[in-house]
UniProtKB/TrEMBL annotation, chains A, B, C, D:
Catalytic activity, EC: 4.1.2.48
Species name: Rhizobium deserti
Domain Aromatic amino acid beta-eliminating lyase/threonine aldolase: 3-289
Assembly notes: Homotetramer.
Pfam families registered for this protein in UniProt: Beta_elim_lyase (PF01212)
Function as written in the Swiss-Prot or TrEMBL entry: Catalyzes the cleavage of L-allo-threonine and L-threonine to glycine and acetaldehyde.
UniProt name for this protein: L-threonine aldolase
Amino acid sequence: MFFASDNWAGAHSAINDRLSKESTRFAAAYGNSELDKSVEERFNEIFEREVSVYFVSTGTAANSLSLASIARVGGVVFAHSEAHVIEDECGAPDFFSGMRMVGVEGAGGKIDPARLKARIAGFPQDALHHGRAAAVTMTQATETGTIYSLNEIEAIVRIAKDNDLPVHMDGARFANALVALGATPAEMTWKRGVDVLSFGGTKNGCWCAEAIVFFNPELAKEFAYIRKRSAQLFSKTRFISAQFEAYLQDDLWLDLAGHANAMATRLRAGIGALNSARLAWETTSNEVFAVLSKASADAAKEKGSAFYDWPVPLTMPDLVAEDEVLIRLVTSFATTQEDVDQFLSICAAA
Amino acid sequence: MFFASDNWAGAHSAINDRLSKESTRFAAAYGNSELDKSVEERFNEIFEREVSVYFVSTGTAANSLSLASIARVGGVVFAHSEAHVIEDECGAPDFFSGMRMVGVEGAGGKIDPARLKARIAGFPQDALHHGRAAAVTMTQATETGTIYSLNEIEAIVRIAKDNDLPVHMDGARFANALVALGATPAEMTWKRGVDVLSFGGTKNGCWCAEAIVFFNPELAKEFAYIRKRSAQLFSKTRFISAQFEAYLQDDLWLDLAGHANAMATRLRAGIGALNSARLAWETTSNEVFAVLSKASADAAKEKGSAFYDWPVPLTMPDLVAEDEVLIRLVTSFATTQEDVDQFLSICAAA
Amino acid sequence: MFFASDNWAGAHSAINDRLSKESTRFAAAYGNSELDKSVEERFNEIFEREVSVYFVSTGTAANSLSLASIARVGGVVFAHSEAHVIEDECGAPDFFSGMRMVGVEGAGGKIDPARLKARIAGFPQDALHHGRAAAVTMTQATETGTIYSLNEIEAIVRIAKDNDLPVHMDGARFANALVALGATPAEMTWKRGVDVLSFGGTKNGCWCAEAIVFFNPELAKEFAYIRKRSAQLFSKTRFISAQFEAYLQDDLWLDLAGHANAMATRLRAGIGALNSARLAWETTSNEVFAVLSKASADAAKEKGSAFYDWPVPLTMPDLVAEDEVLIRLVTSFATTQEDVDQFLSICAAA
Amino acid sequence: MFFASDNWAGAHSAINDRLSKESTRFAAAYGNSELDKSVEERFNEIFEREVSVYFVSTGTAANSLSLASIARVGGVVFAHSEAHVIEDECGAPDFFSGMRMVGVEGAGGKIDPARLKARIAGFPQDALHHGRAAAVTMTQATETGTIYSLNEIEAIVRIAKDNDLPVHMDGARFANALVALGATPAEMTWKRGVDVLSFGGTKNGCWCAEAIVFFNPELAKEFAYIRKRSAQLFSKTRFISAQFEAYLQDDLWLDLAGHANAMATRLRAGIGALNSARLAWETTSNEVFAVLSKASADAAKEKGSAFYDWPVPLTMPDLVAEDEVLIRLVTSFATTQEDVDQFLSICAAA
């Protein structure tokens, strides 16, 4: 019953097998092996166009270096006020890009288009002292388990483009969002105008596989230097490639995300049926936010469940009663129906 | 016959098996699992004292963040003029530490103590405009295949300490040096006064396992923030730990390095016996630098050998005749006697 | 009728005369002349204790380098959400300090203590991913013309100290605040617990005289290097010293600020008596924010008045009617009664 | 007898008078006054073409921000190994540009073209690990008192351009070099291919007047943001403009430099005629390097001369006998014949 985070899961056996196979070979280092090249090709297929792909070690690196690729001196980046780049990366995006992250509010973890527009307007192009608008970054799926619809993505992108701003998508849970929407990778990104994507594999069955995917080749031009200077060029890069090869083969990645999402749906349904618990808000990815009686939460923890208590959003002060607690539950490719059902029955019994 | 670099090898089967085993489990992320803790303990045993250990993704990260931990504004770091931190990391050490690397010459890839002393003297403590001496970094084994003796390490450290400078050791090939010297990890580091170590596992049988080991706890105090801000905190850290667990078990790491060194010795002996080749200079680790007739080098490449031509050192202008070429050969845990012998016989036949 | 900003004024004649006198002499460069030393002593007297004083070229530099002196990796600095360090310095504080500025709301341009406390609590000391609380900076007088009382300063500082955070004061209009409060420099700073101060002279009669004053000697220890590395060490530093010598002599600086404040008071009184204008909010320094009929504002501009239209605060959406405009008027040592009265009569006539 | 540096002199009376006049006026801040605009025009005339001019506070800022304007990630900048950007700016050029300074040797303080070519060749465009060649910077007049001829400038620039590298000129003593060569500003800069110039006024009669002059408009495009973010935008910029207006009027700047150079010539001639002293090497600007008997040097200091002892260049180990000392003498606009003659007679008498 490990619902603390999808990064508590191990690695999928197919990915692990591919890694094992790779371990017995010699091959060129620093991304120059045939495997590296073929996986790059695979990304072209997945996205139905030529893309530039660069592997890095962590999601924080993927976001930070993506933003570094579009860095402008004095630039500000607009992100949802609860975005990972603001709340959870210890300032790495600012450090690598030299830019400031500016929070934009919005319900359900999604940037509100009207507020984004107003925020950007506060940085007119000649306002030297303020700094200047330089990029918009959006998270798909969001930090709070919701998902931008294709139209919602398009609305955000259109505002960015009207202001000549490139758009970055933080796809740490890209596959979960994709499956939930039933969209193609192309539809959810460059066909809507996204310029650069953090494509996460770690949370969805790899052990360490994060890629930056450039749809805008202009942004990729200097990127080899940015990555190397940022200490993110693996010597044995092909071990990342090997993970991605297995991950992207025969729709494994979509199956894994589909499973995680289904487990979350099962959790949501179960919680909705409980007396001692309720959903805090609607989610559609592999994250579930629930209000539990403290008794249920304590019982679940005692019996071996792992999950995090979550801070009550400032905008929802009445969400949680005194004898209740807000928790986050994250499912993964490795979550089983038994895990879910056991957790629910513990809660029900408490 | 892959002698291009030790990072062309795959991963050792014991390390791979340990990874596979790890892949089926859930565990806490970000270095908080029991495995992470137990491997940290293992480092204490290996170094015969309490140390602070932090994993990072690349050797460049290990060096750059080590130096960031001892950063001083306006600081300069003294390194051999051919050191990896100067020649091969695209400025990452400067970027992360905010300091400048100052090259110190020295024969055989090793810092010359007298020159180091003179160089440091050029940065007296009150010389605001010059900047100030802040650290010494030495590479063990060196970039040119040589190894500092324990006395030579001590001589460098003593000069550093006389000037209140902390000492960093770049141990990308730490195990190779250790085995060649027949010393213990403690003897080659903190017992000589080294403060912080880049402890490399990737070149010696892991697929991605680099650690920063602090002997000076003062330097480690802020390091958790330095690493996270530098985008080097893996979520599934335990997969690094798993590699190190197998690597450090039953002296595997020393056996692997011993094998690589032995293969280099075999190469050296074979080359010494050839008419069409000779050693460029003496080496004692797993790197061999040889002058080959172009005919031999071409034949070797044609028949499937991989190695790099090497630039002729400015200090050895007469090393290579017109119909010759300087090459670097690197052996690894995965190099076989057959590889070596086949390479030698091709050269002999050319 | 130049009310655009106090930095539109020239330099006071006494300061100019002192500069002229200095221009005929030779003296040691880089802050080593006797004049430099004696002005440093003068700061000790002004603040009734030993302080460390460093001159820099701009207010932005004073703030940015003050924060650089207390930089922590992954650190966040709490400032009022409309503070100069957030809104008007193009990211320089982030660039020089490597830290992020986090806005705290509060009425009247002043940090709200309860919100500050809540904000700091969001960065507990072990919350690696969030970053960590590192400093509080407050502006005295504020960007909106208000002034923290001594008790209000103390309240903010106490919260900072309870969290082990150093406190910086942006005193670009330090003298205006001091005179308005009738306090001593010591009372408004270190006696309340302020650790480092941006002490501005430029807006109050100097042409370029900004100092960083350290009350906490620990923060000053590395500062000579920070300043030099930041390209802020003047060779002919004594020309800054000369300005400060005249500025601080015989209370000139307090007289100049007193005059500017008095002119603002006269403006406020006059505007309060007009039909076509009203004060937008209460101010007590040399800044006045007024709502004017567009007719008045246009007439004033046409007849040679210089001032800036000001964005209506988001928190005061009903402040300004459709045929009105919010403006900022700033007085200085060089503002005359005639300027004020002429402006008022133009508005009255419109 | 102040020969310590040209920055020990005060400010020329014409420049001071212009400043005084400016002090009584109001004018727009941040470079938007009419005076600012007219001085920008004046630079166009001086350089016989349209240029972009930006004022900054120090020579270190001028160099550092010039290099920041041509910054490339992973970039290296080639400079003479004794250049100010390497030896005397505490790492500021590296800090602001994010690039590394790579020293190139050369006799007489001038970059040796052949060595420059070889050094650049060490950074081929695809050599990710090394970093990449990004700029060449040359100092005119050099740190050792010599001057590049127009042909020598052209030779350096041609090598840079053959490698697609922009060229920066550090002109802290631009006027001294110009007068010594009898060239025009255009001939010594953009007509030879220089892209950006640090144009120094401080050492030649201003009290604080440093400009960055862009001949390549592409480099200037982002510069307003670079300067502001670097805390180098003066609010009362017009006080810099006022200095430059007087400086550039009626050839004052050339007259002042001509005087300083003439005083240096007088010094050189006098020293050449002494028994107790000799020139260390030939110089042609306002710097003189001399070997004095210690007795002479001591006598001169005792009787009020100010000058610096200078480290003996490593390439000239036999330059100075045991009872001798190498000193640097710098003349300025404010040096008088009497100063020179008195110094010489003290040396002669010792």
